[in-house]
Amino acid sequence: MALCRALLRNKRDFQPNINVNVRHLAPTWLKRLQHNNAGEETPSSEVPSLNTGRSLADVLQDLNRRVPDKLIRTRVEDGYSSKYIPWHIVNRIMNLHAQEWSGEVRGITYSTDGKSVSVVYRVTIYGVDGEMYRESTGTSSASDTNFGDPVQKAEAMAFRRACARFGLGLHLYHEELN
User: Fold this and answer.
1) What are phi and psi of 78, to 5 degrees?
2) CB neighbours of 151 closer than 8 A, spacing ≥ 6?
3) Smallest Cα–Cα separation from 46: which of 66, 35, 31, 60?
4) CA angle 174-163-144, nearest 5°?
5) Is there a contact between 155 and 138 (Cβ–Cβ < 8 Å)?
6) What is the chain's mean pLDDT, rounded?
7) What residues make up the domain containing 161?
8) Which of 31, 98, 117, 134 has the fewest CB atoms in 10 Å of its CB?
């Protein structure tokens, strides 16, 4: 809940734009539902639905907004600091702005020397006008067991990067270049 408040507090950067259209029940559908003597199922094409779908352009516009600083973490490795958004916060942002999305691990590969593992992750967003996916990889040292196992870390990295390909948190990469 605090995450949602933080996302919504900074309206200039992260303002949700959710349009809800309700399809009204047709009288013939209601009649069939109430008076279905044969106990038959109502055809799925006649079942009313709550259409919360959005266009891909609207979803991408929201995902490209700047992530509030409160949600960004800093990691220091080998004397170099980098900003990142934890995977669970990326997941919540996706749930907030791209309600219809899915993610899947497409592959797990261990290096031939067994020292690293790479994960390929695909994120798909669905809109009323189609679907779009992005894939990315994440790699972790097999010997690094801090904060979870190596596959888990590589998956989280690949997930964040795949979401960044939609624009989520992409501003962090540009800040590091400056």
Assistant:
1) 55, 40
2) 108, 117, 119, 140
3) 31
4) 85
5) yes
6) 78
7) 2-13+56-177
8) 31
Bridge partners, residue 21, by sequence: 51
What is the reported pTM?
Answer: 0.69
User: How many of the other CB atoms lie within 10 Å of CB of 110?
Assistant: 13
pLDDT in tens, 20-29: 333 333 334 3
48-78 residue pLDDT tens: 433 468 999 999 999 999 999 999 999 888 8
**Do 113 and 36 fall into the same domain?**
no
Residue 173 one-letter amino acid: Y
SS (H, E, C) 93-133: HHHHHCCCEEEEEEEEEECCCCCEEEEEEEEEEEECCEEEE
Residue carrying structure tokens 């639905």: 49
Token representation of residue 153: 């870390």
Pair (63, 104) in one structural domain: yes
Tokens of 52: 């919360």
Domain count of the chain? 2
Looking at this protein, which amino acid is placed at residue 94?
M
Q: What amino acid is encoded at 75 in this protein?
A: R
Nearest C-alpha neighbor of 152 from the set 87, 101, 55, 92 = 87
